[in-house]
Each structure stands twice: as structure tokens, then as C-alpha cells.
Amino acid sequence: MTNSKDQIPPPPVTVSVQVEEGQQGALLQLVADFQAGRVHPTAPAFNFGDKTYPEAARALLSDPSISIPLKKRIAADDIRDPLDALTDAEQLHALQSKRFAEGARQGAVGNAESSIHKEGVEALERLYKVAQGNSGQCRRIALFLLGLYNGNRFPFDLTDFRAIDDELFEDCMRVLRMDARACKQEVHTYFKNGSKLWERMAKDWGAIEFGTLRHLAKEIIDRNDFHHATEQRRAELVTGLKDALHYRGESSDEY
Fold first, then answer.
1. I want to staple 242 with a disulfide (CB 3.0 to 4.6 A). Which of 78, 151, 160, 252 is the partner?
2. Which residue, among 148, 177, 144, has the nearest Cα to 160 in the 3D structure?
3. What total of structural domains would you count in the chain?
4. pLDDT digits (tens, 9 = 90+) for 125-154
5. CA distances from 160 to 94, 141, 157, 163, 225 (A)
6. Is residue 30 part of a domain?
């Protein structure tokens, strides 16, 4: 009897899959369906035509593409009860299908995450360069990056996506996908002195810190008396509100 400690574990299964851009989700769904038993793999079908069983067996045994283990299995099963051999084959198929599903899932997920991360980092670098420009699109890209940096301080208006071209939009989606599905670090940390770069970006574009504005407004509202707030706090709130209206492109003359 073989000691369990002496047993050699089965070799790991490595599966490499190449898919078109944007099809990673469909591949992962296929793997999930396979693992759940909703779809099944099939081995290449052998067309035995009108051959009898002995003729078909000899054809496989003489085929150089058939592996040695399979040839030994065919020869061994030839002298067994066909029902027993078929039952064993079905059980082996079920076991190897499970092994394949687990290996495929791990390989597909790993490859997909690696691809998403690589594309996201490349897109992030392109977007940061765009944010250093001075056009309306550059401003919106900067605000998008600031929203990923700190959404509480710099919330991003999703309707701003309507004002950027297709190429920039796709890069934004690549960065979002990386940040949501293959996040390894905060976006600013991909750059040397990233915090300083992002804070400078916020200052250069005059990005409103809505988190600070909300906190100030809540402080005054909780006191339930705007007129009794200190002159400095009232001025800060009014200035912040005017800046916010200007930031959104609205008139603040009446305030």
C-alpha cells in the first residue's frame, strides 16, 4: 500500500487563451458555464465509417498521432467487458473535465487580469499626458483622473464623457476597467511623486473640492443659523458656492 505522503501530486494544468479585445468577459462566462455543467467539452470525433470494432481499434493503435497511454488503454480494454470499460471511460471523462474546468478558469482569469492591467496602465499614461494640455477635452480628462484619485474631493460628472472623442473615451474605459477589475494600486502611484502631480493637476485646473464644501455647509446647517456663523465661515461658504457654480459653467451673479 502506498503511503499518502509518498504520492506524487498531479502536474498543474496551464491553459493559455488569446481572445480579441473586449471579449474577455465572454470567455470568462464560457468558463463559468463549463464549470457549472451548462456546456461540455468534446474530444475530436473519430470517423470510423463502416469499420467494425476490431478494425477501428487497429486503426487507432496504428495511428502515430495517438498517445502511448491511450494505445495501452485501448489494448487493455479490448479484453474487458465492454460495459465496464465504457463506464470507466465515462467516469474518467467526467474527472478530467472537472480538472480542465478548474485549470481553464484559473488560466483565463489570470490572463484576463494581466491583459486588463497592462492595457489600463498604458491608457493611464496616455490620459495623463492629455490632461497636461489646455483644451476642453484636456480639462475633462484631468477631472476624470482626479475623480479616480479622490472621488469624495473631486466627484466626476459622467455626462462629461459626452464631450470627449472616441479614442479618449476608450482609454477612460480601459483605466476604469483596470481600477475595478485588476486593481493593484491607486492610479496616481503609477507615477513618481504621483500625489504631488495629482494635487498640482487639481490646482492647475481649479478643481473644486466638493468634500470640503459639503463639510463646511453641513457645519453651518447643523448650527441652524447661517447669519450667526462667523464672518470668515460665511465668506468661505459663499466663495465655495460661487466657485462651484462657475466650475459647472453656471452664472453666479445673483449670489
1. 252
2. 144
3. 2
4. 999 999 999 988 999 999 999 999 988 888
5. 52, 9, 6, 6, 36
6. no
